[in-house]
Amino acid sequence: MNFAGADLAQILTWIFSSLVVLMNVAIVYSNLTAVKSVQAAFRRKGDPELARVEVAPFLQAAEDAFPRWVRVQTYLRNTVVFAGSAIALVAVSVA
Questions:
Q1: Residue 4 per-residue DSSP state
Q2: How far apart, in whole angstroms, are the C-alpha atoms of residue 72 and residue 36?
Q3: pLDDT tens column, 33-83
Q4: In this structure, what are the phi and psi dihedrals at residue 84, rounded to the nearest 5 degrees?
Q5: For residues 53 and 59, what is the distance between their CA atoms, to the nearest angstrom?
Q6: Which spans in the chain are helix H?
């Protein structure tokens, strides 16, 4: 629609690209704060066994159990989302 010059396309690009970036930011933030979040969830449970779990090494072990391509896919997703949305927003702004 942008290539065809449709007026609605610019508005939709701004809305869609902004939402995609914000959703990815939320995903990245939740990944960065996972240890704190899991610790808080374990505390809320009040379970003495959960209280003894060392969350950081536990989550690291879980992350290490994934195949190597998962980490590559995560970096690729972040690159595509952030760069792609930035390019789309700049292209729409210049047009």
A1: T
A2: 24
A3: 999 999 999 999 999 999 999 999 999 999 999 999 999 999 999 999 999
A4: -60, -45
A5: 10
A6: 7-32, 34-45, 48-51, 55-65, 68-94
Residue 94: which pLDDT band, with cuts at 50, 70 and 90?
confident
* Contact in structure between 51 and 43 (CB atoms under 8 Å): yes
How much is the pTM?
A: 0.79
Query: CA torsion angle for 54, 56, 62, 67 (degrees, to 10)?
Result: -150
Q: Is 8 within 8 Å of 1 (Cβ atoms)?
A: yes
* CB-based contact 12:1 (threshold 8 Å): yes
